[in-house]
Amino acid sequence: MGMISCNSLTTNPSCHLAGSVVVPGDKSISHRAILLGAMAVGETRIAGLLEAEDVMSTIGAVRLLGASVEKSECGDWHVWGVGTGGFHEPENVIDCGNSGTSARLLIGAVSTTPISVLFTGDNSLRARPMQRAIEPMQQFGARFQARTGGRLPLAVRGARNAIPIRYTLPVASAQIKTAVMLAGLAAPGKTSVIEPAATRDHTERMLGAFGASVQVESIPEGRLICVDGHAELGGQEITVPGDPSSAAFLAAAAAMTEGSDVSLQGIGVNPTRTGFFATLREMGAEMEYGNQRIEGGEQVADIRIRGSSLRGVEVPSARAPSMIDEYPILAVAASIAEGKTIMRGARELRVKESDRICAMVEGLRACGVDVVEYEDGLEVLGKGPGSVAGDAICASHMDHRIAMSMLCLGLAANKPVGVDDIAPIATSFPGFIDTLTRLGAKVSSSAD
Ligand code: S3P
Hints:
Layout: E1 9-12, E2 18-22, H1 27-39, E3 43-47, H2 53-64, E4 68-71, E5 77-80, E6 94-95, H3 100-110, E7 116-120, H4 123-126, H5 131-140, E8 143-147, E9 151-157, E10 166-168, H6 174-185, E11 190-195, H7 202-209, E12 214-219, E13 222-228, E14 237-239, H8 244-256, E15 261-268, H9 275-282, E16 286-295, E17 298-306, E18 314-315, H10 327-336, E19 338-343, H11 356-366, E20 370-374, E21 377-383, E22 392-394, H12 400-412, E23 417-419, H13 432-438, E24 442-445
Parallel strand pairs: 2-15, 3-14, 6-7, 10-11, 18-19, 22-23
Antiparallel strand pairs: 1-23, 1-24, 3-5, 4-5, 7-9, 8-9, 11-13, 12-13, 15-17, 16-17, 19-21, 20-21
The structure holds shikimate-3-phosphate (S3P).
């Protein structure tokens, strides 16, 4: 093993993970609850908000835009909004940290209000494409100054007399769909967005609850979503379910380790998010949904998962939008499975918090896994339990999901797996290491 820093961590071969855990709140729903609360009139109360760095970036931003956000003693969060079109011009730059969702959603939310807003982010976010958000906003009438390639930092001058648009998404992106819908709220008339493939629909659901008029229909080109402008949103009570994208790491850890039996409580199972669970089941994982219910307009279930013999599968490309954040952990599960797992049609992985195809190919190969890299995905040639050497230190590339994925691999490899920098995990799953440890995983710091 090579040089390690104080932010590094190692996981060791583990088995019999057991227990029942609550996973932190859904990141996508948390961002939306804060942002819609900030665009509503009156008070929004949020239970179960994800208290992680990405969501704190959105909270910091809406405060600069004039909303009040406070946490109460019971742990709920309260937002007092300024109404659609009511954002104030911020006195300082909005720093979105590592959060692409904050940046894209906020660019949409401010683009139809006549204020100037400056956005920046960390090294990872400043390398990510923002042109996809800029382009539809220019059609509304907003003006932009951005770095070459539409990168942050950028400045927006929101449109004074916005024009409603009809926009077809060039890539399957819930962030861009949401940005267009949020911009449409403060524009006149009806704004329409067409998505060729269905992406997570939390915005559509939540906007309806806030009192906006949202219409969704299937058309030959895909899914058409229309939102009426000059909307009056009223404060709401929101319950945030557990994040299925965070639960995915624990589900995979349990499925990959012998004798494990783990229950994950209150996980969001909205069908636009459950592609990973469907795939894990197809791989042979013993997994059940219990106590299925609707909470705050979202489907929720408790998930029980046991150590299982996994086999390789071909993941249909059409499933990509419903599991786009789960490919790194799926690639890890695939390396412990028997046979080939093919993951294609996921080019978007190249522009996430890191180039996730590249990061996973590098990390898996360092641990002795046979991997083929494609422009739009990867193929993992799994050789079953006991076949992954481990004994490597992997780079997290400032990407929470790469860090958590490689740590999960260390539980099922023959020798420990280290991750050079686990700090990014705080962007989405602050208690991840504690939760793993509580389930019985063997985790050691570099100093041990
Ligand atoms: C998100 C949408 C997805 C996802 C991201 C969260 C959202 O990104 O990867 O983690 O909350 O809308 P894209 O919209 O770029 O697909």
